[in-house]
């Protein structure tokens, strides 16, 4: 499967909303993780975010052109909402029935993190959904100006939810860089054997 991942904003003057956190930072963090995980699962990924743009319209246009030129199967735009500090939750925009079917499991996975369900909404007013040729969804992950949402939010969990919702799977968890040996019997055993071997070399009376 070939995915077009559209990391919202991050292309001045196309910049995102500001709340408790900055939308650009969160879309970039979640988007990069989503792209990495999809690649780990063996999918092709097209990064649709333009390096630079000369207007918001131009930024959006470039995103659609990339997705269309690369003939991606599914276009996924990642955004965060902002409103009045009280509104909260997750919503996904889709236009066609196929897109709505793609949106449903993604929404279900994200809701498991504890966000309020704002539902799947009609995204026919959204430029990137109107101007991409394939099925597409625009995820409003949660509200960056909601204290409740920002407390629930975690970029790794959000990326996992999106990838699981899109593909039904997750890549195998990366190996922990500093393993706790007490949790790993193999390593503990290895250390014990090494210790015993050292003992045998230095003291021939030890019987094993
Ligand atoms: Zn946005």
Layout of helices and strands, plus pairs?
Blueprint: E1 2-7, H1 23-40, E2 44-47, H2 56-69, E3 74-81, E4 90-94, H3 97-111, E5 117-122, H4 127-130, E6 135-143, H5 147-152, H6 155-167, H7 185-202
Parallel strand pairs: 1-2, 1-3, 3-6, 4-5
Antiparallel strand pairs: 4-6
The structure holds zinc ion.
Number of helical segments with 4 or more residues: 7
Structurally, how many domains make up the residues? 2
* Mean pLDDT, all residues: 89
The level of helicity is 40-55%
Query: Regions with pLDDT < 50 over 5+ consecutive residues?
Result: none
- Secondary-structure arrangement, i.e. CATH architecture of the largest domain: 3-Layer(aba) Sandwich
Structural class: alpha/beta
Oligomer: single chain
Overall 3D shape? globular
- Heterogens: zinc ion
Measured between the Cα atoms of the first and last residue, the distance is 56 Å
Strand content: 15-25%
Largest sheet: 6 strands, mixed
How are the strands of the largest sheet arranged?
Answer: 2-1-3-6-4-5
Provide the CATH superfamily of the largest domain. Zn-dependent exopeptidases
Number of strands: 6
Q: Gyration radius, to the nearest Å?
A: 23 Å
> At the third CATH level, what is the topology name of the largest domain?
Aminopeptidase
* Helix-strand pattern: EHEHEEHEHEHHH
CATH hierarchy class name of the largest domain: Alpha Beta
């Amino acid at each position: 499967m070939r995915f077009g991942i559209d990391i919202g904003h991050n292309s001045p003057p196309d910049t995102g909303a500001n709340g408790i956190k900055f939308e650009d930072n969160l879309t970039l963090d979640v988007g990069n993780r989503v792209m990495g995980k999809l690649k780990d699962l063996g999918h092709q990924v097209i990064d649709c975010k333009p390096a630079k743009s000369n207007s918001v319209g131009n930024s959006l246009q470039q995103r659609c052109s990339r997705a269309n030129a690369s003939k991606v199967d599914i276009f996924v735009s990642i955004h965060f909402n902002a409103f009045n500090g009280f509104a909260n939750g997750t919503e996904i925009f889709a236009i066609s029935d196929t897109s709505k079917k793609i949106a449903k499991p993604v929404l279900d996975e994200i809701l498991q993190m504890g966000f309020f369900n704002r539902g799947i909404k009609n995204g026919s007013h959204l430029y990137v959904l109107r101007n991409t040729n394939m099925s597409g969804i625009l995820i409003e992950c949660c509200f960056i100006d909601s204290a409740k949402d920002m407390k629930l939010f975690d970029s790794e969990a959000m990326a996992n939810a999106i990838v699981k919702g899109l593909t039904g799977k997750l890549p195998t968890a990366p190996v922990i860089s500093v393993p706790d040996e007490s949790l790993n019997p193999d390593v503990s055993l290895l250390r014990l054997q090494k210790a015993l071997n050292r003992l045998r070399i230095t003291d021939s009376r030890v019987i094993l």
